[in-house]
Amino acid sequence: MFTAAHVFEPEPPYDFDASAGFAVYGRGRYAADILADGVFSRALDIGGKTVALSVRSVGGVERPRIEARLVGDRLNSEEESKAVGLAVRLVGAQGSRIEFYNSIKDDDPMAEFTGRFRGLGIAQSASPFEGLVLSILGQQISNEVARVLRDLLVDTLGEVVSVKGVEYRTFPSPYAIAEVGIDELRGMKLSARKAEYISDIAGSVASGVLDLDALADLPDESIVEELVKLRGVGPWTAHWLLIRAFDRPDGFPEGDLAVQRSLGVLYNGGERLTPDEAVALSARWRPYRSYLVTYMFAAARHGLIQGSGSGQVVGP
Q: Which of 280, 69, 236 has the alpha carbon at shortest distance from 139?
């Protein structure tokens, strides 16, 4: 069986535990992603080959090092490099946080939050397709219901990699989802509308009509414009994908109720902002609003922003 190990040194500061924990929403599992005993793991499909990935910290916040291990089908050097690159993004170890920190050092309470969560990176989905499907599954429902739907989709349609008796599953491919059709998706507790949206998108990607990966070459506004053309995708979903799938530093889902409530608590005397008010206020944090949203949500999830409602609103 193929095995490989790589060590990567993120730009400091980087907190693996905080970043990987945020990736799974503070739980042990988020769809295909698993975090247990300080190890982030999942299965990856690399060009039709399946490998189990595990990532752990072998450094500290100010001198970070992470180790990524791959086990499964034999990968060539290009495929192995792609898998390692995905590992880095999946645990939010890409890029730098320093410029954002410097930009808000005099902005309380955001400066307080960046101190509290120093080194938190923005974890990415393994692909825009995965991020899009997960986001659609989470629309307008509670965290717990969304978690059930995501787990069922992965457990039913994901490819399995077994390592030392432990099974890992990939996120289902567009082909796998398109093949089962709407009725089987309904059997996984999806609503008729969500099953239609996801089946249509999967079919378009599988047939080559839709190339979500190619959107990465476009500016932010163009990505949003292209995404909202898809059935089931509005500005909320598109802006979350900028943050969690396209690794853009300035995504801002102004339609997110938790964003509106959190900003209202912090900057508007507790009164929720309208989407337009949220956009106007957010101009002060350009071009780092993805980090603003991430750190604000981290603070809310730790009880530092009372009344934000972030526990009820799910991003991709």
A: 236
